[in-house]
Design brief:
three-stranded mixed β-sheet; mainly alpha; 2 domains; 7 helices; single chain; 151 residues
Length: 151
C-alpha cells in the first residue's frame, strides 16, 4: 500500500483466512456513517449527464483528493490523529499479547469514535469482543494474528 494510502487507512488486525496459512493485514478507510450530503447534481451550465460528470471527476482524482475534497474530509472528521494513535497503541498491545492493556486503548478508541450518533468504533468493538470471549488472555500459540474461521 502506498504511503499516501497508508495515511488515510487504518490497519485493523492481522488475520489468517480459513484455508490459508499466510497471515494478512486488513485495513479500513474510516468514515462517519450517519451524515447527510447534498443531492448530487451536474455542474451549473453543463448539459453533461450526472454519471459522465462523476466519471470526469473520478479521472481527476489524485492522492491529494483525500485531504482536499470537502466530502471526504467531512466523512473522516472523527478519524483524528489522536484517535489513530490510541487505536494503534491498542493494536500494538493486542498483537504482542498484552490484551488487558489493549482493552483499555480499544475502549478509549471506541468512545472517541462514538461522538454524536455515529455509534462506537466497530473494529475496536470486534477486537474487544474477541478478547473478552477468551477471558482477556491470548491463546498459548498466539503469534499476533487472529484466525478467521469462515470465508
Amino acid at each position: 500500500m502506498s504511503p499516501e494510502a497508508q495515511d488515510v487507512c487504518r490497519k485493523l488486525d492481522v488475520v489468517n483466512v480459513k484455508g490459508s496459512a499466510v497471515p494478512m493485514p486488513i485495513y479500513t478507510y474510516d468514515c462517519h456513517q450517519t451524515q447527510n450530503f447534498p443531492v448530487l447534481r451536474t455542474p451549473k451550465g453543463s448539459n453533461m449527464p450526472l454519471i459522465k460528470a462523476l466519471e470526469q471527476k473520478a479521472k481527476e482524482f489524485t492522492t491529494q483528493t483525500w485531504t482536499t475534497d470537502e466530502d471526504l474530509v467531512q466523512l473522516r472528521h472523527l478519524a483524528t490523529r489522536e484517535f489513530r494513535i490510541i487505536f494503534e497503541k491498542g493494536l500494538d498491545k493486542y498483537s504482542s499479547g498484552e490484551w488487558k492493556e489493549a482493552k483499555r486503548f480499544f475502549e478509549q478508541a471506541s468512545r472517541m469514535m462514538s461522538e454524536g450518533d455515529n455509534g462506537n468504533d466497530g473494529p475496536s468493538e470486534t477486537l474487544l469482543q474477541y478478547m473478552m470471549n477468551r477471558n482477556w488472555k491470548p491463546p498459548r500459540d498466539w503469534i499476533g494474528c487472529r484466525p478467521l474461521t469462515t470465508k
